[in-house]
Amino acid sequence: MIQLSIREMAQLLRDKQLSIPELCSIYFDRARAFNQQTNALLKINCDIDPAELLQAEEALLDESKLLAGIPLVHKDLFCTQGMVTTCGSRMLENFVPPYDATVVSNLKDQGMITVAKANMDEFAMGSSNEHSAFGSVQNPWDLTRVPGGSSGGSAAAVAARMVPVATATDTGGSIRQPTALCGVTGIKPSYGRVSRYGMVAFASSLDQGGVMARTADDCGIVLSAMCGHDHKDSTSHPDAAWQWNLPTLKNLKGIKVGVVIDWIDGLNDEGVKQSTIKAIDTLRQQGAEIIDVALPHAHLAVSAYYVIAPAECSSNLSRFDGVRYGHRSIDTADLETLYVNSRSEGFGEEVKRRIMVGTWALSSGYYDAYYLKAQKIRRLIAEDFNKVFEQVDVLAAPVSPEVAFKQEEKADGVSMYQADVFTIPASLAGLPCLSMPIQSVHGLPVGLQLIGRYFDERSILNVAHQFQQVTEWHKAMPEAYK
Ligand code: GLN
């Protein structure tokens, strides 16, 4: 059962070979059993919510609603009405949202069942999930290693098949990198495709909700249900609604795939390098034309991102002042002390570091030197992509320069920041991108990133789907969880 696709599960439910409670109980049991080792989930529901079940049973009568009765977890920064939403932070430890995020309500409308909320790096800042206030997440492939971040809980939950689907978000790599390190498939759609309403903000010009699942087809089905225009999010695109259908062609003939040759040559990890080359070769065998391309400004992306993202975070997180939102210190002699103590107690180290860097970058005298300059670099990178997409349909690239690293291996911030060298460029340009499993090196998964033109999720999902028709890596799962 745990290896079935969404289409297969939907068929079983419609044929009445399985009921929604039967399907969900398999996953509720696995979630409870495996969370002890992985810590992937922060809050597991006791049972199916009766209102969700009712909605799912109704949705099941509608042939087009493939997600009726399919269980999922939400990354713990999507507001869930009546269910604690912590964002991995002490600051929001007791925050019970009075409403659902648009992503959550869209998926409920399709009849999906919420199993749990997934652990994450605090306020989505990190690449290892070690920055969660509620303990780090363990990678199901090797419990001594990180699952990646910030959506590490979502990725570990799908990898251990605690759920077939998880929502996640990506600001600079938080869907793709954990997806790669945990051996699952995940898509970050184009900026503006999925509503950010009810998604706790980190860096608003970059944050984008997306999905992780076993296969590209599963991701396409869930993304179709999540996306759409939302008047409650001013950055939601008017044409955001979109529908994934299985491609009719069975190969990649006529598709031009660009490869940033510098990125592959520069990989120090021989295993990741060879896996990437081999995967690109598979695409070639399937009929794709492989074309070498260059992104001349992409090497500046990490530096620009670590000015822009902290700047936006310093502004977004100013609302957590212990008065309107968030943890309030009991030590509150006067207003100033209330602010200082509440924020000092509520935020973790990494979040504080980002707030300080961002506040500094935005301060008078430094704004032009750092923030404005970073924005100019962002524009140059976007133009690099525009040029490349005049020549090719899709870009194939590494996701992470290495396989899952050991817990506490990257204790200094800067070496952790380098984990996102290949994911940040597409984030700065707002492009759709995905990660899919292509190999395993010493028992640890490796991912391939596919980047598409703005609003062309279809092409990257199509290439991933075709790849998964001739390979088995997306079916691999850690022995202990079979
Ligand atoms: N690892 C990156 C960071 O720490 C990206 C995080 C994200 O995409 N949310 O900012």
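^ glutamine complex. Residues 355 and 421 are 22 Å apart (CA to CA). The chain is about 40% helix and 15% strand.
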